[in-house]
Amino acid sequence: MTDILGFPPHMAAMIVAVGVTYFLMSWAPVWWSALVAYRGGRLMPRRFLFVVVVTCLSYGIFSFLLFALSFPAEMYAMFVAPQLDRLGYPAGRPVLAVIRFLEHYWWLVLPPLLFATTFFITRKLSSRWEKICVALEG
């Protein structure tokens, strides 16, 4: 059998499957909240607003957490770790190794963490959505 883009067919299929999974998990705030809002069973008021709110909260909270964790880590890697190394304290090297690893491979954990954030926010907000809508009409 011929190669597809230089890869054997089973490897090309695996690459495509990983790419599709990565894409779907990156868009999880939109499709997961829409799935919860428009599923059969119960009638949720203002469904489109629910999807928009969950999407904005998911991306916003996730971006804030990413910044809140990466900013101090980068400041440590740029300012504190070199000074500790110069002073002869090798205690900063393991932390620096973890920071550098995350710096290079952050994109691998991004979609699963975004999906986890979306799942948590959707679960918390969907049970309270009717009361929120009543309060908005208020």
List the main descriptive attributes of the protein structure presented here.
138 residues
Summarize the structure.
This protein is an all-alpha fold.
Protein architecture, described:
The structure is a single chain. The chain is mostly helical and 138 residues long. 82% of the residues lie in helices and 0% in strands. It has five helices and no strands. It has helices spanning 9-26, 28-38, 47-86, 92-126, 129-137. Helix 1 (9-26) packs across helix 4. The longest helix is centred in the middle third of the chain and has 40 residues, at 47-86. The chain is flat, with a radius of gyration of 22 Å. The N and C termini lie far apart (66 Å).
Strand content: under 5%
| Oligomer description | single chain
From the N-terminal CA to the C-terminal CA, the straight-line distance is 66 Å
Which class of secondary structure composition applies to the elements? mainly alpha
Rounded to the nearest angstrom, the radius of gyration is: 22 Å
**Mean of residue pLDDT values:** 87
The stretches of 5 or more residues where confidence is low (pLDDT under 50) are none
Biggest sheet record: none
Roughly how much helix do the residues carry, as a percent range?
over 70%
Strand count: 0
Instruction: Give the overall form.
Output: flat
- What is the helix/strand order? HHHHH
Number of helices: 5
